[in-house]
Specification:
Elements (H helix, E strand, L loop, with lengths): L6 H22 L7 H13 L2 E2 H8 L3 H13 L3 E6 L2 E9 L1 H25 L2 H19 L1
Antiparallel strand pairs: 1-3, 2-3
Amino acid sequence: MLDPTAPEALAMMLRVVTGKLKRRLREQAAQDGFNLSQLSVLSRLERAGPATISALARAEGMRTQSMGPHIAALEAAGLVRGSPDPADGRQTILSLTAQFRTWVAGRRAAREDWLAGILAAHFSAAERADLARALPLLERLAES
């Protein structure tokens, strides 16, 4: 039997449990009809800032023409807006709107409310303290 503290075993267990938690958190916030590619574009724009359609397509591993319908849906929903690139008028720079910030705050609040409820109902104070102590280690792992 593999030692659960061995790097290989711990890596597998962390991957499995974080995947499960990510899926559960995703279930708690309405996707509002957006597919994973559209959600990924929103996440990328939030993390990296404004970008052109071609830059987003490259980052997402798709053709520029394939990115167009995703952007159109996000623009129609009021979450993304385009403006002319001052350096190249043929390009459009896409950025997130104030409506996106409201939308994403609601999604995050829904996930945090669900998680807080689970922690309060199913975990003792000592278990919550254990989780709190593990957070700096998980943060360090995520940033490595």
